[in-house]
UniProtKB/TrEMBL annotation:
Full protein name: DNA-binding transcriptional regulator, MocR family
Record-level Gene Ontology MF annotations: DNA binding; DNA-binding transcription factor activity; pyridoxal phosphate binding
Organism annotation: Janthinobacterium psychrotolerans
Keyword DNA-binding: yes
Lineage: Bacteria, Pseudomonadati, Pseudomonadota, Betaproteobacteria, Burkholderiales
Signal peptide: none
Length: 466
């Protein structure tokens, strides 16, 4: 009998990961080891893996840990079950959708964070602790007391302790920007912004009949002297700034420039909308502009860029109570409120530390992807090493629309400069978003394909004849 068992053991799969203390949950370590083995070729498609009981015994862990690890590996399409024959390394999935999307600025999925489990646990806690009736009714005051307090906690790294009553909870940054435009300007009023700016601002300004004008910028952002001149000339009601890892240029405005712009806004009595979605993703960012002119600046921070777009929760810091009420009235005219259930989930995640863990994972993954982009794009890379995107100036033989079209024929989606142009600003660049492709290997393939395309001239692309 023992001889037969020895013969059977000789034919058992011998794959076994190494588990390390203080390196995260063991089930994720096992799943990550499987993914690494597939990536480096030490595990090949069709290779048989140990059964869950066998692997649990070898590693000295409970069966549930290995079961969760194999479930996670199946979710990543690394494994396939073949009934009584066992579990095998899955063959690569054929990509029917060949488009590699480098156009959408979304947070990358972080390694070591079980998002599905975080979502289930968070919702479970919300439903267990909250009054379900309150989750399904109207909240017209800009969020519940708990939600506004969560906003104060979220903004504490930027401002320290805040009065939660000064914070409004909104259904995303775009709704907040539109409500700010509607509340603080009149039809025909001028709004100033940098030559390349967030497209959602232009959409809101156009929809509400406001005039958007560009103020010249340099490598540090909007030029103070040009802002003051524009304020004297056009008498604007708002200045829109995105000072940290700016979308799309990825510039982070230094502290001295922020202070100068705040001072000019005070002298010219113009409000600044400081849209700051990437502050928490940046390495040692300067203090927000709002710290230099608290009454002059309306500060906006969204969870969509640090955590996940599906939350649709943003926090707006408005210190003046009259402006806050005007803002709430404008918001209710088209968005009414943030959905209480998702706001409660955001509050739960902020309270229990899940939001911070997820954000730290996003930050780490984003930096890995920036290093990948720097290596592949070589001399063309001009990113900051943080955040979700790269602004790529194009060689003279390409224009941005032409390049975006050529990229699409090669199965790559990028965003051309004209999508961000304020007024008649002339730009020749593209924005490359690093988070929208979930798999890092596919991102690498997309960046390499784009690098090859940039090295060629437009005339080398002829029409196909079929």
């Amino acid at each position: 009998m023992s001889q037969l068992k020895s013969m059977q053991d000789d034919h058992l799969p011998n794959w076994q990961p190494r588990l390390a203390p203080n390196k995260g949950p063991r089930f994720l370590q096992i799943a990550d080891a499987l993914q690494a083995g597939v990536a480096d070729g030490s595990l090949t498609p069709g290779e048989r893996l140990p059964t869950q009981r066998q692997l649990a015994a070898r590693l000295g862990v409970d069966l549930t840990t290995v079961t969760r690890a194999y479930d996670e590996a199946r979710r990543r399409h690394l494994l396939e079950g073949r009934g009584a024959r066992g579990t095998y390394v899955a063959a690569p999935k054929a990509e029917l959708n060949a488009i590699l999307d480098l156009s959408m600025n979304t947070p990358p999925p972080p390694d070591g964070v079980d998002f599905d489990d975080m979502l289930k646990q968070g919702l479970s806690q919300v439903l267990m602790r909250a009054d379900n009736g309150l989750l399904m009714t109207y909240h017209l005051g800009g969020g519940s007391d708990a939600d506004r307090q969560a906003g104060a906690t979220w903004l504490a790294p930027m401002f320290g302790q805040l009065d939660a009553r000064q914070i409004v909870v909104c259904p995303g940054a775009q709704a907040a920007i539109a409500a700010l435009v509607l509340a603080l300007t009149e039809p025909g009023d001028v709004i100033l912004a940098e030559p390349a700016s967030y497209p959602g601002l232009r959409a809101a300004a156009t929809q509400f009949g406001r005039r958007l004008m560009a103020v010249a910028a340099d490598q540090h952002g909007m030029l103070p002297a040009m802002l003051e001149q524009a304020c004297r000339q056009h008498k604007p009601r708002l200045v829109y700034l995105n000072p940290t890892l700016q979308n799309p240029t990825a510039i982070t405005m230094p502290a001295h420039r922020r202070k100068e712009l705040a001072s000019i806004a005070q002298r010219c009595d113009v409000r600044i909308v400081e849209d700051d979605p990437y502050w928490l993703l940046a390495a040692a960012p300067p203090p927000p502009i709002a710290t230099f002119a608290p009454q002059q600046v309306l500060y906006l921070s969204t969870l969509s860029k640090c955590l996940t777009p599906g939350l649709r929760v943003a926090f707006v810091l408005i210190r003046d109570p009259v402006e806050r009420e005007r803002f709430l009235a404008a918001l209710r005219s088209f968005a009414l409120m943030a959905a209480p259930l998702t706001a409660a989930l955001a509050t739960q995640w902020i309270a229990d530390g899940s939001a911070d863990r997820l954000m730290q994972g996003v930050r780490k993954e984003a930096r890995l992807r920036h290093r990948l982009a720097r290596d592949i794009l070589a001399g063309r890379y001009s990113g900051a090493g943080d955040g979700l995107h790269v602004w790529l100036d194009l060689p003279a033989y390409w224009n941005s629309s032409q390049l975006a079209h050529a990229a699409s024929t090669c199965g790559i989606a990028v965003t051309p400069a004209h999508a961000f142009a304020t007024g008649s600003a002339s730009l020749n660049a593209i924005r490359i978003s690093l988070g929208s492709i979930k798999d890092r290997g596919r991102l690498q393939a997309g960046l390499q394909r784009l690098s090859d395309l940039l090295a060629r001239r437009p005339e080398s692309f002829g029409a196909a004849v079929v």
